[in-house]
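With this grant's support, we have settled on a layout for protein records. One resulting record is reproduced below.
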Amino acid sequence: MAGVIAVVEDEPELQALYRLMLAARGYGIAYVSASADDAVDRYARCAQKPDLVIMDRRLDGSSGLEAAQRILALHPEARILFATADADQDLMQGPPGIVGVLQKPFSMEAMFGAIERALAGQ
């Protein structure tokens, strides 16, 4: 398997698309979450932590950045790739576990390139 990924996205259509695309490339899905609080809770409960968390910046109940900071406080080795429609790149100025920003809308090629770079630590 190529790796295990958690998806934090509040739009059901995008959740389904992530599931299909990631599974087609051999990635395992640790969990799919729609809210920041649920994402942090599910991350904390994972016995084997995901290799990568793909997270939307805007989530129900909180921001993705806040959720990322909480996940990184629990597990400083976490890797978080933001997928966002926001044009700014200020997310890269956040905690060290933020390994990339994928600008929505994106192509499958761009998504898998970003995932591969994030997993490789680039």
Remarks:
- DSSP finds four helices and seven strands in the chain.
